[in-house]
Write a structure and sequence with these properties.
Shape: globular
Structural class: mainly beta
Strand order of the largest sheet: 1-3-4-6-5
Helix content: under 10%
Number of helices: 1
Number of strands: 8
Order of helices and strands: EEEEHEEEE
Amino acid sequence: MAGVNKVILIGNLGKDPELTYTPSGMAIAKFSVATSERKKNQQGGWDEVTDWHNVTLFGKTAEAAGQYLSKGRQVYIEGRISYNSYERDGVKKYYTDILGNRMQMLGSREGGARQDGGQYQQNQNTQQAPPQNTPPQQQQNTNDYEDDLPF
């Protein structure tokens, strides 16, 4: 049976994305995202607990992140979790990455952000265009089959 590996984050960038390119020309963006939640402490008060997540994006999604995201910006990331390790000086180190395949900019539109919501999705190494905001009268009715129902 196949498993599911899906992560959804909504948080704020801890630093500007670092945009690099592979020798074949594929863009890679790396940055950290902070997520916070409130937890009740032993004294009955509330503490805010922050977790930091390392995010990696690829292709057109990475290019969009490099162009539009900056430290402090709120973002939605969807992807999968990846556990990795490396060895340095004879000591094995472990780290966790979020390999994002969908990104949407949230919050304010400072710095020339997109007017269409800034949604980007990576789909098997291809980039889908963000959805366009079209008026309701121009949208195709996908429920035409309802006219044929006998009740």
